[in-house]
Amino acid sequence: MSFDNSSAVGVLEPILERYSRNPHHLMQILRETQEHLDFIPQWATDYLAEALALPRTQIQSVIDFYAFFYDSPRGKYRILFSDNVTDRMQGNMALLSRMLSKFGLTQGQASGDGLLSINTTSCTGMCDQGPALLVNNHAITRLSSQRIDQICELIKEKKPLAEWPAEFFRVEDNIRRKDVLLATEMVNGQALKRAIELGPKGMLAEMKASNFRGRGGAGFTTAVKWEACRNAPGTTRYVVCNADEGEPGTFKDRVLMASFSERVFEGMTIAGYAIGAAKGFVYLRGEYRYMLEKLQATLEARRKANLLGKDILGQKGFDFDIEIHMGAGSYVCGEETALIESLEGKPGKPRIRPPFPVTHGYLDQPTVVNNVETLAKATLIAQNGGAWYHGLGTKLSTGTKLLSISGDCDHPGIYEYPFGVRIAQILEDCGARNAMAVQVGGAAGTCVARHEFGRKIAFEDVSTSGALMVFGNNRDMFEVARNFMHFFKHESCGFCTPCRVGTTLICDTLDKIANGKGTAYEMNELSRLHQLLRSASHCGLGQSAGRPVNDTLQKFRPSYDRRLKQKDFEPAFDLDAALIPAREITARDDIDAHLGADQ
Asked: Pairing relation of β-strands 133-135 and 116-121?
């Protein structure tokens, strides 16, 4: 599409006005621009640069960083197959090949008529009902050969997504076990009313008494974070809900945002009251775009009920409101400082810490960043008190934990347990009869072998952000680790050399072993690279990237050893093959133009 001033005014001006021409809203401006134009053409980038008073290169850097932004045509229908390890276990690659063959395309190629493109993306948060794909950022689950054929026909007929069968877009909660959070009905405003009765200091005291720890994975004590933010210098504070659950195998936040958003929003409002914030942001991952309109409607209903806005519930001076910001396909934005960078309209690269967000967060102001589950459970503490919550779970891990269970089990879905539950009990409940291994905490988590199934889910034993992927006796743990490493390589933001280069080196080494050229040298190299990444990487992505390889090397060594050659070393690079272009240019193919085996 060439530049047309009327197009710019007609498409871009309403978007710019909706976001008050605020450059910190660049991500949302770009997202809406692409939804109107199918991609972000150069003329749109130029127009936005002038309208927002930003260098064009700064806008381009944002477009280039996020996987879901395109600056060249990708087709009216942009198909992305979810390529998490559980999708592979469910046969996603055969379905991808089926669709490619029906259109005569190769992966990543846009059709010549501009109709569509077909590629893969990382985990879409649909592991309990995969294989899945995204079409223009809308999820389609439970793929089959028949469903793929139906989708292909709809695309060939150029049917708008609004006319596709609603069944395609049905996303189920699959809640299998409920405890104090999922089983408790909430009256909107009840927990907030109780927090107001307690007062900010009283609410913080209840949070301290609960010994409640954040549910995003790190397990930092929530009351300490809230109090540090409240006591930080400055008058403007923010609450950020981290709903960017990009960890493979995790989908609990998807369910909370889809069916328990009132609790999440109320928990954010309680946090705002406790720390003295007037503004909150939900950072919702791009894969959950389908929820946006419903969530916006819920926020509007809460404003009308005086649960958001000015003088909430008649409490003069208690002002708090919430905005939703969409991500655009970047795993590293789950890290809180990278998320804040993205909120500010920049590439989501982790910041150097200290300072920490509680003192220097969004727009350099004190900011609390909490996980979706953390904020939802704050309502329970407000309603029932910290002592009650402290009585649940274990001494060091109070309360309950939501677990996203997928893989080789009969009943994948969401399970809520008190902390301290044994992995063996979870496997029995979800119908995992022949489990060989469980990956706890996603790709960056801990691989637990069969002899360890007596271990407990708790911060003092096996901690987790909420993902449990089950692998049966028929699975190859080498290939599982290899899949995870290619995920980390793809998702590395490139900020630091250890992560950027290290993840590539580990992937190359695993590929070399898979291709039958691995030796004892490569095994030692994998261990060395893991230690290097863990000690030298800038953020948690690089520090934990080598864990799946290190764990499976220790616990499933035969899956590596059977691929090895007995030689001490064999080069992966074929120098003679690399000289083929030179021989073609010189029209030589005689023996002297080749490297012999003894050379």
From this structure: unpaired
What is the CA angle 449-507-579, rounded to 5?
A: 145
Residues 370 and 214: beta-carbon distance below 8 Å: yes
Four-CA torsion 414, 415, 416, 419, nearest 10 degrees: -120
Tens digits of residue pLDDT in 540-566: 888 988 999 999 999 999 999 999 976
Length of the chain: 599
Q: Which two tokens stand for residue 483?
A: 């899949």
Give 156's contacts (C-beta < 8 A, 6+ positions apart). none
Supply angle C-alpha 188, 194, 199, rounded to 5: 130
**Distance (Å, rounded) from C-alpha 341 to C-alpha 357?**
11
Show Cβ contacts of residue 124 under 8 Å, excluding neighbours closer than 6 positions: 80, 82, 84, 132, 133, 134, 139, 287
Give the whole-angstrom CA distance, residue 272 versus residue 274: 6
Dihedral sign for Cα 134, 140, 144, 147, please.
negative
Q: Are 92 and 143 in contact (CB under 8 A)?
A: yes
pTM above 0.90, yes or no: yes
Task: Please write down the HEC assignment for all residues of 177-224.
Answer: ECCCCCCCCCCCCHHHHHHHHHHHHHHHHHHHHHCCECCCCCCCEHHH
Is residue 2 over pLDDT 80? Answer: no
Q: How many of the other CB atoms lie within 10 Å of CB of 181?
A: 20
Q: CA of 202: how far to CAs of 188, 190, 225, 279, 318, in Å?
A: 21, 16, 16, 21, 16
Nearest Cα to Cα of residue 204 among 471, 78, 386: 386
Helices marked H in 475-555: 477-491, 497-514, 520-536, 540-545, 547-555
Phi-psi region of 199 (alpha: psi -120 to 50; beta: other; left: phi over 0): left
CB contact at 8 A, 69 and 44: no
230 vs 464, residue with greater confidence:
230
- Strand boundaries in 83-153, DSSP class E: 116-121, 133-135, 138-140
Biggest CA–CA distance in the chain, Å, is: 90
Burial class (CB in 10 A: 0-12, 13-18, 19+), 113: exposed
Contact 138, 170 (CB under 8 A): no
Residues forming a β-bridge with 404: 414, 467
Is residue 333 within 8 Å of 349, Cβ to Cβ? Answer: no
| pLDDT above 50: residue 72 | yes
Torsion on CA atoms 289, 293, 299, 305, rounded to nearest 10: -160
**Any residues with CB less than 8 A from the CB of 427 and at least 6 apart, and which?**
409, 435, 438, 453, 470
Binning pLDDT at 50, 70 and 90, where does residue 376 land?
Answer: very high
Sheet with 435-440, strands from edge to edge, namely: 175-177, 413-418, 400-407, 467-472, 435-440, 446-449
The pLDDT of residue 566 is: 66
Q: Which residues are CB-contacts of 153 (< 8 A; sequence separation ≥ 6)?
A: none
Looking at the DSSP bridge assignments, the partners of residue 448 are 438
Q: Round to whole Å and give the CA distance between 401 and 371.
A: 12
